Amino acid sequence: MLRRPENWLKALDRSSDNLIEIRDLMYSRGSRVIFKDMNLTIKRGEVTALMGPSGTGKTTLLRLITRQLVPQHGAIFVDGVDISSLNQAGLYELRKRFGMLFQNGALLTDYNVFENVAFPLREHTNLSNRLIRHVVLTKLHAVGLRGAADMWPSELSGGMARRVALARAMVMDPEILVYDEPFVGLDPISMGVIVRLVRRMNDALGITSIVVSHDVAEVSTVADCSYLISDGKVAASGSPDELHAANSELVRQFMHGMADGPVAFHFEAPNYAEQLLGRDAE
Amino acid sequence: MNTLVRDIYNSIHEFVRTFGAFQLFFLRLIRHSPRMIVRRPGLVVKQIYNAGALSLVIIMVCGLFVGGVLGLQGYANLSRFNAEDSVGTVVALALIKELGPVITALLFAGRAGTALSSEIGLMKATDQLAAMEMMAVNPVRRVLVPRFLGGVVAMPFLVAIFTCIGLFGAHLVSIDLLSVDVGAFWQQMQLSVSMDDIHEGVIKSFVFGVVASLLAVWEGYNAIPTAEGVGRATTRTVVISAIAVLILDFMITAVML
Amino acid sequence: MQQTRSVEIGTGLFVLLGMSALFFLTTQTTGGDTFSASDTFKVEARFENVGSLKSRAPVAMSGVTIGRVTSVVFDPDSLEAKVTFVIDAKYDKIPDDSDASILTAGLLGSQYIGLQAGGSDTYLEDGSEIYFTQSAIVLENLIGKFLVSSNSGDDE
Prior knowledge:
The complex is a heterotrimer.
Chain A: H1 5-13, E1 18-29, E2 32-43, E3 47-51, H2 58-65, E4 73-78, E5 81-82, H3 88-95, E6 98-101, H4 113-124, H5 129-142, H6 158-170, E7 176-180, H7 188-205, E8 208-213, H8 216-222, E9 225-230, E10 233-238, H9 240-245, H10 249-256, H11 272-276
Parallel strand pairs in A: 3-8, 3-9, 6-7, 7-8
Antiparallel strand pairs in A: 1-2, 1-4, 4-5, 9-10
Chain B: H1 2-39, H2 41-51, H3 56-78, H4 87-125, H5 128-134, H6 139-177, H7 182-192, H8 195-221, H9 227-256
Helix pairs in contact in B: 1-6, 2-6, 3-4, 3-6, 4-6, 4-7, 4-8, 4-9, 6-8, 8-9
Chain C: H1 2-29, E1 40-47, E2 58-61, E3 64-75, E4 80-88, E5 99-104, E6 111-116, E7 128-130, E8 132-134, H2 139-155
Parallel strand pairs in C: 1-7, 2-6, 5-8
Antiparallel strand pairs in C: 1-4, 2-3, 3-4, 5-6
């Protein structure tokens, strides 16, 4: 699974290829339709950002791409393969090509930092302890936490936990790294570290990155291409600059953080005056 | 009226569905079990430790006092018929056939079962199970199966230890405190306790071990992944385990009579 | 590493403790039936009344358990109870004219079959039947007889 230079070159070479394609996706939870007729492509070797207001189902979309959820309608292709056609074994093979960074890190609380990073290796390979130690320390060094190898997840700050999770996500040398809200709740320094890591991992390892976020400023600095998702559809797409310049009201509201606009400040509610006068009680 | 009928229909439907899902879940655990025992015995050992060794103190303390109170009550009531010598028989049969398995199972549900379901529920709430899925590791196999097996293995041993300590407690009370004859105590017991009684106790402890561990793992795995949901799952584990253990105890006793 | 070691030691101790508890229970609390021979032969006997004799009850000779009752059924032809029991195969020199009686362990204890050796030169073997039998003593009958005999004694 180690990515060799020729693969890396090939990845660059085929950078115009679409690694992930979503076609006519429909997904609903209960009676609530989350995505409808959604089309989206993610290019090989790029950092793609999926942005949108809270509650638009960005995380759901990630879970659909990694088939933790199955769409009601439509298809998702990863490297040309329709993932809904895979059986359990095929799915697990596919997932070995993914590395995912969960919002809160999702480190295993039973194990210390070292064992957390070593976990996929111990599960999937028969490497010797020495070799595992080598690989794990290398990955921890890459995220700057080699010194924290003996710490426990509960002793880590939010930013550190996320960096450990990143090291764990990379340990099997995946082709696609998926970040779920990597910038939420971090202090500016940790945020800067993560932003830098996202970009560096992508370019140095020649992988494809998908970042789900609603932090416009951070995304603008790392993403090659952004999708703005709203109302179950792709509302706008393009490079950060293109989005900034777009004149759609929704895009403007989101990119510039305006309180009111197409996404209303008020949640749907009965008429204010009537409710205050108590008419709805009848 | 119509809605009442529909509500009843819906709740019956839901109950049957949940029950079916529960059976399938059980089969899934069983299917993955042999592989985990062979390939990852260390994981199972760790869970035997969690479910068994860590429950020892509570089991032993409770066993001592349950045995002691059986000795007291047995003596008080048997002495009315001048049959104090049978106190050993009464205590041993009660402990081996009924109280050992049942009380141990209830304590197990309260100590190890809640620990299991809250642990698994928290792993779910903090995305640890999803993270395993994403690392191409089956969380049912990696997380649930060892915990289930740990409980199943630990329970019969816990029951045996509870019963022994209980006998010791009864011995302490009736012989050292109430001066029943030691020889009569053991001889009467040995005359009336047969291998069948021990078998009944062992079968019960095994069944209760399976049920209590299965329920704990099931509730944890199906917990709503929030703090409140995990709390509720933990409570349900204790309540449902207790009900299931007592109903099964009745059924097994009736069958084995 | 240190942690897994202590887990292993703890588990080992726990399992050992559990096993010794189980061993203690099976050996120290039971004793009534120590009969567990696997190599046995089958013997039959008919009784007028078996009292409360049940299958699994011990078969003893001179107070030592040598076998176990396997079935107690009513025989509609002879109108008697037919008791089948097995005897450990190493006791192959029991005279075939020995008699079997149903006895009670203690005053109110459980019932068992006691064998009293006869004097024959042929021995019990698989499928033999014991013809000399003595029924269980039923307490009610005993009391009844006692009352009748004391009444008749008064008349004379």
